[in-house]
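Help!! Second protein's tokens look totally different from the first
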Amino acid sequence: MRLKPSTELKRPLPDEQDKEVDRFLADERAKMDFHEDRWLYWIRVILLFFVLLMTLAVLFTFVFHIIMPQEWRWLSIDESKYIRDLAVTIIAGLIMSIVTAYYFKKR
């Protein structure tokens, strides 16, 4: 006469249960990180687009005041100088960021 195995032996051992729980929690954390990364990506894209539009507006205003006749200009000479300084700062920052990104990407 053979004894039937106990149903308790069919359940995973405590160490295996812990591993399953750890795997489940790791999968859930990875899903949360993916969703968070996706939201941060879109926030960065929107902010970069906004900064691009503002930069183009400043540069357009600067160029407009250089090439158009005096009657069409709405900024004073001092304001034009401020716009010029702002445009130079934007261009310098853009060049530095491109060079930095290229340097670190290459390494």
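Here's the second one for comparison:
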Amino acid sequence: MSDLIHELSLGVWQEIAGKCIKIAQTEDEAMIILQTNNQKYSIRLPRTRRKLETLQGQQIAILKTDDVEKPFLIRKVSTFKTTPTNTEDRAMTVATTIPCEFQASKNC
């Protein structure tokens, strides 16, 4: 796997999902590094009051919205096996929205 980190700017209604491997916050913004398959991506978000460190190591999805008040939503994503109705193994992915909306204002 490459150590190269690609900077990603999500468009409206674009989403990325992967393992959150690093989080850094400054006074103005937060940066989350996600690993998807064999690639790493950094995503810059507006600063938030939420302690994002709790997401490190978790499978998450980041969605950019068209809402000025909440331009980004973060969801935890979990994968678990269901009981198959036939002999095949099946995996189901469930995404649950968590209260991790990012406000556009720096005064959050």
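Reply: Different proteins will give different token patterns, so don't panic. Strands lie at 5-8, 15-25, 29-36, 39-46, 59-64, 72-81, 91-97.
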